Please model this.
Amino acid sequence: MTSPTSGERAVSAENYRHRLWLFAYLIAILPLSGFWLYGLMDIDEGLYASVIRTMLATGDWMIPRIEGEVWMEK
Model:
């Protein structure tokens, strides 16, 4: 059995570096992985979406409304 040459070691080290960066990237992305899956399940989120939908439909960007009533909560 022969020992690896310096060129083979360089390729191996480069491959290791790429795998290390990929692992670091995946670890950094992990906390963000489920944020878009939550959706509009919370009561407040659906309420805010309704206000935005009303603003889009009426074109009134100054006064938020829910079912025609002025809503100044946030």
Notes: The first strand starts at residue 65 and ends at 66. DSSP finds two helices and two strands in the chain. The beta strands are 65-66, 69-70.
